[in-house]
Give the backbone structure.
Amino acid sequence: MSRKVYLNGSFVDSKKASVSIFDHGLLYGDGVFEGIRSYNSLVFRLKEHVDRLYTSAEAIRLKIPITKTEMIHAVVKTLKKNGLTDAYIRLVVTRGPGDLGLDPRKCIGKSVIFIIADKITLYPKKFYERGLKIVTAKTRRNLPQAVNPKIKSLNYLNNILAKIDATDAGTEEAIMLTHDGFVAECTGDNIFIVDNETLITPPTGIGALDGITRDSVIKIARKKKMRFKERMLILKDLYRADECFLTGTAAEIIPVTKIDGNKIGDGRPGSVTRELLRAFRELTKTYGVRY
């Protein structure tokens, strides 16, 4: 089905929407993006997603030519234009067209902004009921001092290579380790474990995204008075955990029941994971921008 794409202030048929072959987002991954989700005409944590988009842009010295408020309105207009009440929204800003050199100063005109909205694609229901089986990727996470994973840039090759590792292993996801062997995150999700009734996740400073869903889970856990820690984890910590789950915009909260062939807990989604998922889905009914 053809949809309407927001492109630099106008709506274009998705089959006809295009950017220049000289756009630096295409040539070099020179741009930033956000994945956002709406539930029943409520865009979940839209302001936080837009704030993160602008933070990412600032980190790569990319000037977004519209204000945050205008960006929020553009997202809402795109959803309304497509008649979507439950959707996944991809918000993209590129450096714009330039020449074949690397110099971003050669990019002429304004940055290119486009917004795509479509029906949400989730993991199959069976994975929420039985849990995911995942592996450790051979590909290591980028050093924060190189391409910082906290920047949601269009250069996602590091994640894609790790995703290929997961696919080659016959699994849906893969854990990415830092260069020195600590658990960072998965290819498209943050990771949590439950150990001795304590919720634990790696700190973002070692090479993990400041996930919006990750932050929501932490807030829910604190509200419920759950014990929570951010600390460095190694694979053995995951193998010995009572529970494990992943968090992300599309995935929400999805249980993991086997890692590298090691059964997690009793091999079924745990009670803490299920409780957090219920609370998260309740939160999505009330928190966000209504349209």
